[in-house]
Design brief:
The complex is a heterodimer of chains A (157) and B (150).
Chain A lengths: L4 H10 L9 H9 L3 H13 L3 E8 L8 E7 L6 H9 L4 E6 L10 E7 L2 H15 L4 E12 L8
Helix pairs in contact in A: 2-3
Chain B lengths: L2 H12 L7 H9 L3 H13 L3 E8 L7 E9 L1 H12 L4 E7 L5 E7 L2 H12 L4 E7 L3 E5 L8
Antiparallel strand pairs in B: 2-4, 2-5, 3-4
Helix pairs in contact in B: 2-3
The chains are: A alpha+beta (157), B alpha+beta (150).
Chain lengths: 157, 150
């Protein structure tokens, strides 16, 4: 992926907040001395190339009514991980699903972030998942405290 | 949040319109005026519902490396270790969770050497009993839209 001079300025900008303006693309275009169409085409291009996972309003989801954010961790036989990962991912309440390495003192290899209105709801969803995949060795870890939550600003590429 | 606010929030979460007049598109979808839509967005920002409007780029796609790390930290040292970790721009998320491994953070950096340097620095802080590196070996899903108003 080759980045030009405009990308190098535009991408870090898009990692921040462009939402204060009623005409965000015009404002960026003016600031960067290019056309509005160029800005829009660039963003579309980033989306097509899958550089940009999403473009829009990013929420403080806890304040938007999604108080429950449970990281479920599952002990899945290695040869079933792919298949089970696909099943878990189909749950709407699951936003992220990954396979990660297991350790003796943390013997889980499949991680699924569950979102719900409350923590109890997340626990219920985990129970439903457990029954669906027939795996009962799992834990749901809740965030007791958010020490940091920031967006990465990509500036070296 | 009222019905119009929820509607607008759902529209702009999924896909903020990529056209010359994005608010014109929002008003078409939400059936309101441009001023109404814009004022709602600003209100939601001021009320800390919307964090920002912008893009989330993929670390891997941008040529960066990322990793999840779990640490087992003595309670008495947890706040200090968390604060130490927070100073790194490369640490984007940092949470206390209810487990023996009580500190979970993500690192996004240009290369694995940088990641390892950061992990080593944190591991050598007082009270850190153990660290596990949890790189994603496979990703099934990555979608974070919250449908509001339901």
């Amino acid at each position: 992926m080759k980045f030009d001079e405009l990308d190098k300025i535009l991408i870090p900008l898009l990692c921040g907040d462009i939402g204060d303006s009623i005409s965000p693309y015009r404002d960026i275009a003016t600031k960067l001395n290019v056309s509005e169409n160029m800005i829009i085409e660039k963003i579309k291009y980033y989306k097509e190339e899958k550089l940009l996972r999403r473009f829009g309003a990013i929420l403080f989801h806890q304040n938007a009514g999604f108080g429950g954010n449970g990281m479920s961790a599952w002990n899945i036989p290695d040869n079933k991980a792919d298949q089970i990962g696909e099943i878990i991912s189909k749950f709407n309440e699951v936003s992220h699903c990954y396979i990660r390495p297991k350790f003796d003192d943390f013997n889980y290899n499949l991680y699924a972030m569950i979102h719900g209105k409350t923590e109890d709801e997340c626990i219920e969803i985990a129970k439903m998942i457990s029954e669906k995949i027939n795996v009962y060795d799992y834990e749901v870890l809740f965030s007791i405290k958010e020490f940091k939550k920031s967006s990465m600003i990509y500036s070296k590429f | 949040m009222n019905k119009l606010e929820s509607k607008i929030l759902n529209i702009i979460q999924q896909d903020f319109p990529l056209e010359l007049d994005p608010y014109k598109k929002i008003t078409e979808l939400a059936n309101c005026t441009k001023d109404e839509a814009y004022n709602i967005v600003i209100k939601l920002k001021n009320n800390n519902i919307i964090r920002r409007i912008g893009g989330s780029f993929g670390a891997k796609q941008m040529g960066y490396k990322s990793i999840l790390v779990a640490a087992n930290v003595k309670s008495a040292n947890l706040a200090t270790v968390a604060e130490f970790a927070n100073q790194f721009n490369e640490i984007t998320h940092n949470y206390e969770r209810n487990n023996k491994f009580n500190l979970w953070f993500t690192i996004i950096a240009e290369n694995n050497e940088k990641i390892d340097d950061i992990i080593n620095a944190i591991e050598s802080q007082d009270g850190v009993n153990g660290i596990h590196k949890l790189p994603a070996e496979k990703l099934f899903k990555l979608r974070v839209d919250f449908e509001v108003g339901k």
